[in-house]
Structures are given as C-alpha cells and as structure tokens.
C-alpha cells in the first residue's frame, strides 16, 4: 500500500484543533451552505443542518486530537461526505419514516471515502466507550477521568487524597470492568473487524 500525502487542506484540521476562529469562520462560510442545502432538499431544515455540522466538527476534532487525523483529500469533500452520511443515518432512524432523499451530489474520490469510514468508525467506537463509561460507578469514573487528564498516578492519588497503591489498583480494576462491558456489548461485536 502506498503512503498517501497530506493534503494542503490539513490547515482546516489544525485550525479546529487550535480553535482558530478564522479557520472555523472559513469552514462555516465556504462549506456549511452546501450542507444546509443538501439537508433542506432531503427532508431537513436549518436546525437539522446546524446539528449535523456541529456533530461532524466535534467528530473531526476528536479524531484529530486523539488519532492525529491526516487529511489526504480536500477538506470540502471529506466534510460534506461526513455530514451527508450523518444526515442519512439520522433519516434511517425509525422516527423518520416517509422521507425523500434527493441524492445527485456524489464524490468518487477513494481517499474521501476512506477518511469518512475511519471517522465514522471512530465516532461509533467513541460513542460505545462513552455509553459504557457512564455505566461505571461514580468512583471508577472519577479515577479514570483524572487519569486521563493528569500526567501521573501520583497526581491522581494526591487529588483524591488516597494512596498511590489504592489509586493504581482502582484504575486497573475500573479499566478491566470498562473493557469487559465494552467487549460484551452487541455494538462492540458489530464494530469489531
């Protein structure tokens, strides 16, 4: 497999990561109108479009932050296809019967589809993780949240006013419990490749 080069539109990803208002305004000015138009012509409205755009931008941000997203295609194609697929998934929900899909906007760029599939997969996995994380006990959530943001387990122990040994063992038990809950989920089995 050949290494794909990073597209010059990578600056949009970097701008989202750094909360650069000029880049975000540029995204809304240049790319969101096309998404709004697509959603309006496919049984949606401006509020639906705003929700889809926000969710997609959050997904892109999280994927860039945690997975180092490298854009190998134009941002517009990637962004639009993610929004389009998110909207189509919304329309597939049982509460949205009798919708009309007017789909004459198509992209055939393989790298766009590849990136979109990666983003959707990431989004699904993150959603599953979040759902199972909320099912953990309060103490487990607290220990794991602190371990995500603090650099060392010593800092976590100080923050919680417990011993290093306790917090280390608690983190291990909670991580094991979370992993088991995720792996026993039907969603995990369908996400597993």
Structure description:
The protein has 193 residues and is mainly alpha-helical. It is built from ten helices and no strands. The protein is globular.
The secondary-structure class comes to mainly alpha
Number of strands: 0
Profile the largest sheet: none
Per the principal axes of the C-alpha atoms, what is the gross shape?
A: globular
Q: Could you list the spans in which at least 5 consecutive residues all have pLDDT below 50?
A: 98-108
Order of helices and strands: HHHHHHHHHH
Helix count from the secondary structure assignment? 10
Gap between N and C termini: 19 Å
Helix content: over 70%
Detail the topology: elements first, then pairings.
Blueprint: H1 10-17, H2 21-30, H3 32-40, H4 46-67, H5 75-92, H6 110-135, H7 138-149, H8 153-160, H9 164-184, H10 186-191
Helix pairs in contact: 1-2, 1-4, 3-4, 3-5, 4-5, 5-6, 7-9, 8-9
Record keyword descriptors for this entry.
mainly alpha, 73% helix, 193 residues
Summarize the structure.
The chain is mainly α and 193 residues long. The chain has helices spanning 10-17, 21-30, 32-40, 46-67, 75-92, 110-135, 138-149, 153-160, 164-184, 186-191.
């Amino acid at each position: 497999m050949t290494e794909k080069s990073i597209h010059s539109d990578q600056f949009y990803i970097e701008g989202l990561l750094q909360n650069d208002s000029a880049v975000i305004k540029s995204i809304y000015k240049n790319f969101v109108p096309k998404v709004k138009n697509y959603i309006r012509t496919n049984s949606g409205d401006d509020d639906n479009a705003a929700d889809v755009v926000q969710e997609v931008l959050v997904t892109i941000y999280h994927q860039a932050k945690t997975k180092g997203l490298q854009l190998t295609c134009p941002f517009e194609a990637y962004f639009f296809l993610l929004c389009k697929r998110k909207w189509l998934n919304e329309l597939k929900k049982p509460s949205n019967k009798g919708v009309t899909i007017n789909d004459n906007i198509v992209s055939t760029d393989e790298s766009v589809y590849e990136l979109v599939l990666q983003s959707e997969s990431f989004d699904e996995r993150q959603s599953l993780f979040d759902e199972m994380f909320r099912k953990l006990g309060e103490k487990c959530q607290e220990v794991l949240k602190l371990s995500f943001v603090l650099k060392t387990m010593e800092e976590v122990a100080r923050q919680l006013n417990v011993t290093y040994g306790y917090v280390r063992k608690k983190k291990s038990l909670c991580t094991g419990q979370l992993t088991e809950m995720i792996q026993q989920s039907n969603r995990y089995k369908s996400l597993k490749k």
